């Protein structure tokens, strides 16, 4: 049986959001079970107020599994996925449009150093500035794919799906 994939949507979005839905469908077509936590009630607390409840929800989801999952997150979902990886084992991280910080939240973005990670970001992201994620990726020597797109990465789903599939192949090979 393949490992679990947990896909975390961005703020003020839902588990049915375009990117997480498309990636969940791709994973399912390849035989990977997925979960998409609903952070809607957490997001009602505002950006900074939603981080801790999102982390708790994601951590509880992971702790209920038999093996470390691959985490996929978009924007706020990427932020909390990285932070959760510091506390519980994960098989990998695919992080889209990752913020380096959440204004009003005490911790900056971080992730476990030994976890296979791919960051994908848009050149024209006006919500999460590219220079911050570039600096983080450079400091950690992480793979960073920068696409000609905005924060939503809506025009880049084909490329994101290809990178996701490649990451699934890598996780499967290392299992």
TrEMBL record:
Pfam families: Abhydrolase_11
InterPro entries attached to this UniProt entry: AB_hydrolase_fold (IPR029058), KANL3/Tex30_Abhydrolase (IPR046879)
The protein, known as: Alpha/beta fold hydrolase
Keyword terms, alphabetized: Hydrolase
GO MF assignments: hydrolase activity
Ranges for domain KANL3/Tex30 alpha/beta hydrolase-like: 4-156
UniProt source species: Rhodanobacter terrae
Keyword NAD attached: no
């Amino acid at each position: 049986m393949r490992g679990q994939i947990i896909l975390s949507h961005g703020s003020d979005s839902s588990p049915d959001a375009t990117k997480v839905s498309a990636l969940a469908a791709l994973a399912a077509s390849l035989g990977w079970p997925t979960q998409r936590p609903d952070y809607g009630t957490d997001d009602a607390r505002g950006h900074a107020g939603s981080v801790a409840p999102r982390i708790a929800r994601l951590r509880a989801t992971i702790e209920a599994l038999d093996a470390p999952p691959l985490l996929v997150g978009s924007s706020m979902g990427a932020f909390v996925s990285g932070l959760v990886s510091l506390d519980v084992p994960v098989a990998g991280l695919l992080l889209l449009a990752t913020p380096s910080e959440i204004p009003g939240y005490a911790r900056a973005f971080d992730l476990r150093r030994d976890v296979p990670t791919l960051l994908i970001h848009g050149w024209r992201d006006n919500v999460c500035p590219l220079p911050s994620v570039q600096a983080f990726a450079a400091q950690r020597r992480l793979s960073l794919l920068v696409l000609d797109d905005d924060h939503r990465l809506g025009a880049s789903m084909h490329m994101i799906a290809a990178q996701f599939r490649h990451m699934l192949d890598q996780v499967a090979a290392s299992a």
